[in-house]
Amino acid sequence: MLGKKGMIFTRLRDTISFFIGLVLAAFGIIPLLNSFKVIAWNLPIFMLNLPVSILVWVIALAGAYVFIDGIIEPQMHILHWALIVSGLVLLIVGLIPILYSFKVIGFTVPFLGGNLVVYQVLIVVEGLLLGIAGPTMH
Would residue 1 count as lying in a domain? Predict the structure, then answer.
């Protein structure tokens, strides 16, 4: 795909990351905007009633995807280290409650709890990281 400055989405992985990022960002930001009364519409009810245990898996898997995307990026890419570090942090934040639920570790992340806003913000962050990394120049 060509932009004004040349090639964007130079690889299929960039395009896939961009669209996964858009979906994740929409999945997190639409309920947030609705809860703040910025928009009157929302996601379908079956998506809003997902249990927290599924949202934790979404955060962990998307964090792993951001981490892998950062590793694959060339080292001179502006977002290389940002994707690696943030992906690793998000992966760990997602994995800790999962491991706690399976009784593998004895602690969990206290700020997560059952607060859906925190999960939605984390999903938006993951979506934005993938969405920004997709069309940047390599």
Answer: no
C-alpha dihedral sign at 35, 41, 43, 46: positive
Residue 36 dihedral angles phi and psi, to the nearest 5° = -90, 5
Does residue 138 belong to any structural domain of this protein?
A: no
**3-state class of 18 per DSSP?**
helix
Q: Whole-prediction pTM value? A: 0.84
Measured CA to CA, the distance from residue 112 to residue 115 in angstroms comes to 6
Of the CA atoms within 13 Å of residue 103, those in its CB half-sphere come to: 0
Range of the domain at 76: 7-133
On the CB side of 32, CA atoms within 13 Å amount to 16
Domain count, the chain: 1
- Kindly give the confidence (pLDDT) of every residue in the chain, 138 residues in length, as a single tens digit, with 9 standing for 90 and above: 555 555 566 778 888 999 999 999 999 999 999 999 999 999 888 888 888 889 999 999 999 999 999 998 888 878 889 999 999 999 999 999 999 999 999 998 887 777 788 889 999 999 999 998 877 755
Cα 48 to Cα 41: distance, rounded to the nearest angstrom: 12
